[in-house]
Amino acid sequence: MGSISHNQVTVSICFKIILYVLVFIISHVDGQNASQQLSITFIADAITKGAVCLDGTPGAYYFSKGFGDGINSWMIFLPGGAWCATNEGCLNKSSTDLGSNKNPPPLPLGTFQSTNKTINPDFYNWNIVQIRYCDGASFMADVEAVNPETNLHLRGRRIFTSVIEELKSTQGMSNAENALLIGNSAGGLATILNCDRFHSFLPGACRVKCISDSGFFIRAEHLRGAQDNAIDNFRKVVLFHISKYVAPNSPNEVGWNNCTTEFSKLSSCTENQHHIIMGNPNS
Ligand SMILES: *[C@@H]1O[C@H](CO)[C@@H](O)[C@H](O)[C@H]1NC(C)=O
Ligand SMILES: *[C@@H]1O[C@H](CO)[C@@H](O)[C@H](O)[C@H]1NC(C)=O
Ligand SMILES: *[C@@H]1O[C@H](CO)[C@@H](O)[C@H](O)[C@H]1NC(C)=O
């Protein structure tokens, strides 16, 4: 009897140890996954709002909720991914992750998005958002008309606006005390273009900063002496995403040509045209 009882105790202890080890391994693996990847949130009613990618699929973002004393601090990240400036280029892009949210992959987190305090001591408990870049034009365009031949949508600006509005109304961003808008490359340009608007969305008490990483495309000769083509690139991007679709059948098209046929002529747009191109900063 005594021996059976002893065996039972041994088996019971062994079982418990195995169980603890399993639970530890499973939770450790789960915990690692949770801290290394973020899943996607699609903008609510994105199609109705017109907040869509090049191919018309809904705009989306990755979100990790803040905690502790980071609950009212926000980091919004705008990723890079170049631009497109022709029907062919934008159609090519619209069949990739940079132009469509058909199959958005989970997001592997970078250092400044980690929830591990050792790795990311300044921001580990902040609200972390990464907006999916799928409009091909640095979240710049907001064109109502859809080209019926290509079905291309040029609406990145609406994606940015809708994400910020949704975070404010559903995730407490309207209580933000600190907010950082960060982007790199095409997202770095988007950060420059949207910094003032971002600020205008947030309450007066909020401390707002913008960081553009590799987003300032200067007009200069390359180190190896090659001619700079940034101006030419941006002329094409701006013309494709804005002017071609601004009031396409308007009797005033000639007036638009005056200000949008060349990038350098943007300065000769009328006040109203500037208003349409730049959008209303408070909207
Ligand atoms: C679009 O994709 C095709 C096929 O891969 C390629 O040949 C073409 O150069 C691409 N066009 C642009 C503008 O990227
Ligand atoms: C946080 O990162 C440190 C350094 O890489 C690591 O030793 C530690 O296990 C991590 N903590 C968690 C909870 O993952
Ligand atoms: C366009 O520019 C030309 C030449 O500068 C000018 O004569 C014309 O009045 C402009 N048209 C409009 C609609 O602004």
TrEMBL record:
This is Pectin acetylesterase. Its main location: secreted. One of its GO terms (molecular function) is pectin acetylesterase activity. The chain crosses the membrane at residues 9-29. It is an enzyme of class 3 (hydrolase). Signal peptide: none annotated. It comes from the Eukaryota. GO terms for cellular component: plant-type cell wall. GO terms for biological process: cell wall organization. Belongs to the pectinacetylesterase family. It is found in: Secreted, Cell wall. Coiled coil: none annotated. Keywords: Cell wall, Cell wall biogenesis/degradation, Hydrolase, Membrane, Secreted, Transmembrane, Transmembrane helix. It comes from Salvia splendens (Scarlet sage). Hydrolyzes acetyl esters in homogalacturonan regions of pectin. In type I primary cell wall, galacturonic acid residues of pectin can be acetylated at the O-2 and O-3 positions. Decreasing the degree of acetylation of pectin gels in vitro alters their physical properties.
